[in-house]
Amino acid sequence: MNYFKGTGDYVLSPELKDNVNVSIALARPLLVKGEPGTGKTLLAHSIADGLGKKLIIWNIKSTTKAREGLYVYDTVQRLNDARFGDRDVSDIRQYIKLGKLGEAFNSEEQVVLLIDEIDKADIEFPNDLLNELDEMSFYIPETGDTIKAKHRPIVIITSNSEKELPDPFLRRCVFHYIEFPDEKLMEDIVFVHFPDLEKKLLREALKKFYWIRQFDMLRKKPSTSELIDWIQALIAGGISPSKVEKDLPFLGTLLKKKEDTDLVNQSGSAHYGYSSSVRTRNVY
Amino acid sequence: MFINFFFALKSYGVPVSLHEWITLHHALARNLNDCNLTKFYYVARAILVKNEIYYDKYDMAFLDTFKDIETTDEMLEKILEGLKKVKELHLSEEEKKQIEELDLDQILRNFEEQLKQEHYKNHVGGNKAIGTGGRSTQGAWGYNPAGIRIGQGESRHKRAVQIAEKRSFRNYSNDVTLDTRQMRVALAHLRSLLPIGPEEKLNLDATIDATCKNAGELEFIWESKEKKAAKVILMMDVGGSMTPYARLVERLFSAASSQISRFKHYYFHNCIYQDLWTDIERRESISTQEFLKSEDNDYKLILIGDAEMAPSELTWVNGAIDYWYHNDTPGLAWLQRLRDKFKDSIWMNPLPRRSWGYVQTARMIGGIFPMFELTLDGLDEGVKFLMKGKGKFFN
Predict the structure, then answer these.
(1) Residue B14 has pLDDT above 80, yes or no
(2) Domain match, B252 and B209 both
(3) Rounded to an integer, what distance in angstroms lies between the CA atom of residue A284 and that of residue B305?
(4) Is residue B135 in some structural domain?
């Protein structure tokens, strides 16, 4: 029985850990959503590490088709080979290349399969995979073979919710929404990355970070990964905690848009920044 | 047993299916929730709810169903009610050591016995039974490192009902006004329903030709086919009664321009007349007449405004709100011209739908343009309306 306890280099909430175990026990894909930079992809790495299993990553792009994950039949190669007679072209099997999903099914031991950013693909993409994920098998008409999973892989799917996912697909998943970590959890996360970070610097940096995140108007709110970059920069630059408190050095690592930087710079004190949120009526 | 939870979810509008409900029972049969209501809350949410915008509704349904349920956590609280807090105990090092030698199993057994015998009521300062301030292995505010701590100070395990009561996902609900990311998702419908961009396709004839010319050396000719892209014009009311929404709408624009390849935007104040402003301060403008002549009519037109103004601004010559602005044609006529030109057009209103009936101008504009609320749901609805081409059949 697989039981995921978490790993030392990845901090996660107990709810997420429970949900990972629920999805493993029920043998259903775990669909993870959340703000960018909350560690959705890293979760799969951590699960693979924690359970000591191999990780297979299938990165989805806007042009990815569901079939590519199963297998690709390299007809062009076969046609080329036919002209020179290099290989026996009647053996179609050698021109069938398994995709990531096929690889995971065909593996001798149980693997963790990460389907990364499933919402990037066409809207029909998840529906095309329904049967394969349910039955954990698929049929190759060219050779008449059926690839069946020897061990049901642990499937983790991430989504940035750029597109809605179809209902039949959602019904088969266990869903977890990663909330943005609160200050307490964030401290733990940062400490995993910087074990000997000065407490005072961390506290000041977090205070500023959560203050910036309060701005409703930001085009892109800074996320965990940006915070870690920022702290890295603060350490490398030898910035003292009092300087972080007074002004914001290396703001460019946190905010990536000019409008956002302007907005934060304009609203000098924490008070004003809060009241300039959208919901405030500000009629002149 | 708790089938009413299923119906409560349904009645709050969470889309749960029987399929998921049965999955939940599989999970419960394997005791994945550890007989714990808090864990049940999360496990059931993971299985039943597939979108964070329903988390708030799930919380409310959960509250309705499980508000008065008695959990083990609550039993502990009842035990504590019977106890009174006394001064903290001071022990010598030696005494502390003695206590540390007790092992956990023994303590647990002892604890269960105590529970059975209901010794806990109003017991203070003893050494064996449950009480406060004593050296016994159970109770609060006492000293025993191996002891069982009952509900002392802040519990580390929040009760599920309390978590649900917090309703921390209220902002994710789909009927609050939008933030950039949500708008982008809604606007993605515009894009996703119309496939854009080149698609690679083998051109068989050209391939045969090229291969022949190459003396049989294979040469593939791929052709890219450009598909129809969504074309969108946004017009936004700025200034006056729209000032509070200006920032919101500005964000809508910034979200929109990243989603749609052919995208134009203009500004107006309350109503559209002979000039369309191209900047938010309303200094630069183009002629509406020219605009109507030159643009293709297959653009989707989205107008954003609260449609709240004096009726004269719509119906009078020189009725525009700005005293320096003279219009020969009443605003209503301009709106009608826009509507005639762009059949696929909608009006998004940041005011709630229930208030439209009370605003005369909102009713007038609602007679020309199909009107939707500027919320995630409304935007979804409006965009679907546009994409299905229902605009042609409106009025």
Answers:
(1) yes
(2) no
(3) 18
(4) no
| B248 contacts A25? CB cut-off 8 A | no
SS (H, E, C) A28-43: CCEEEEECCCCCHHHH
Residue-wise pLDDT for B340-375, tens only, equals 888 888 998 888 888 888 888 888 888 889 999 887
The residue among B173 and A280 whose pLDDT is bigger is B173
DSSP β-ladder status, B198-202 and B222-226: antiparallel
Tell me the nearest-neighbour CA distance from B241 into chain A, angstroms.
8
Q: Are residues B356 and B370 in the same domain?
A: yes
pLDDT, tens only, B308-321:
888 888 888 877 77
- Verify that B239 and B311 share a domain, yes or no: yes
Instruction: Answer yes or no: are the C-beta atoms of B282 and B290 closer than 8 Å.
Output: no
Q: How far apart are CA B137 and CA B369, in angstroms?
A: 74
Global ipTM: 0.80
pLDDT of the residue at A265: 76
Task: Name the residue range of residue B211's domain.
Answer: 199-228
Q: Are residues B253 and B215 in the same domain?
A: no
Q: Which of B48-52, B234-238, B318-322 has the lowest mean pLDDT?
A: B318-322
Q: In angstroms, what CA-CA distances link A77 with A83, A96, B26?
A: 10, 11, 48
User: Between chains, do B50 and A31 touch, taking CB under 8 Å as contact?
Assistant: yes
How far apart are alpha carbons B129 and B134 in whole angstroms? 9
Domain match, B296 and B215 both:
no
Strands A154-159 and A174-178: unpaired
Domains in chain B, number: 3
* Assigned CATH class of A14-178: alpha beta
Q: Read off the CATH number of the domain in which B297 is found.
A: 3.40.50
Per-residue pLDDT of B77-89, as tens digits, reads 555 555 544 444 4
Residue window 182-241, chain A: list those with CB within 8 Å of chain B.
Answer: 216-217, 219-220
B212 and B348 belong to one structural domain: no
User: At A162, phi and psi to the nearest 5?
Assistant: -80, -30
Give residue B259's pLDDT band: very low, low, confident or very high (50, 70, 90): low
Q: Do B17 and A171 touch (CB under 8 A)?
A: yes
Closest residue in B to A79 (Cα–Cα) = B218
Q: Where are the domains of chain A?
A: 14-178, 183-275
Per-residue pLDDT tens over the stretch B141-171: 334 434 344 443 434 344 566 666 666 666 5
Q: Are B33 and B61 part of one and the same domain?
A: yes
Distance from CA of A70 to the nearest CA of B (A): 20
Among chain A residues, the shortest Cα distance to B255 is held by A219
CB atoms B23 and A26 under 8 Å: yes
Going across the sheet that includes A111-116, the strands are: A54-59, A111-116, A154-159, A30-34, A174-178
- Nearest CA distance, A185 vs chain B (angstrom): 14
**Mean per-residue pLDDT for A7-22?**
85
